[in-house]
Amino acid sequence: MTMQNATFKQQFLDKGYFTVPKVIDAAGLDILRKAADDCMNDTTDPGRVTEVDGKTVRGLHGAHLRNEALATLCRHPTLLGAAKFVLGEDVYVHQFKLNIKAAFVGDVWEWHQDMTFYHREDELPEPQFLTVAVFLDDVTEFNAPLTVIPGSHVDGFKESIKHTIDTYDKQSDWLSNTTAKLRYTVDRNVLREMVRLHGMDAPKGKAGDIVVFHANLFHASGVNISPFDRRVAFISYNSVKNLPVQTRPPRPEFLAARDYSPLTPRELGDLSPNRDCPEDGRVRAEVAS
Fold first, then answer.
1. CATH number, position 222
2. 93: closest CA among 288, 289, 285?
3. Residue 112, domain member (yes or no)
4. Which 8-state DSSP code applies to residue 163?
5. How many domains does the chain have?
6. pLDDT for residue 286
7. Domain extent for 110
8. Phi/psi of residue 228, nearest 5 degrees
């Protein structure tokens, strides 16, 4: 699939998202699933978030900093090519997360725009970033697919409601950006009007498919009522010309990148499924010279 295709960019401009099937092959999925399992089993990971039961993993933030397979995924030629083609600039990964919708118990993500969090919390000045969702499992109508409002990005950044959140154990403030009760959600009156105008969609597909979506696209997901896990890697690529303003201390690095170097492509096939992480636990991506 060649990303130099005006159709994808036009869909992105018109609807706020597009899908590409069969981007990651079976061998690549094996590598990524092993990486996801390894990260889920690491209870010391500072970016690990659980559901309200305190044990089911909800999300893994910044796992690409500690796992080479996930770092390489961020540099997959199709993913990186899509981000650079649509944004028209070199990019870096501002945030990486594995969202784990566990069978039967994976909880909701409320309606929101990514720009709300990245602008208010990380001080990104413009919505000059996008997110690529990589399906590690089949995504169906039953296991809580990403739900979007097509075209909702066109009107730009909407004022959201800020909630005062009591985190489960009064833990770090950043948790209110990652739990089932988000710090910022879309005003319901705005949401009703957007749905009236544009309707809703839930992109579904097979493991290995991707969805690319706009910083201002309204999106959410429900509870996973099925007996099937739904693991999706969300990679937020930001333009190297849209760096944080930094008027205050930033969020932890696993939520907001410190390395703004432009990325270069790398194939997943360059990795062995059993390749270990560097001794210091950090992965350093190769960058463009």
1. 2.60.120.620
2. 285
3. yes
4. P
5. 1
6. 35
7. 8-240
8. -120, 130
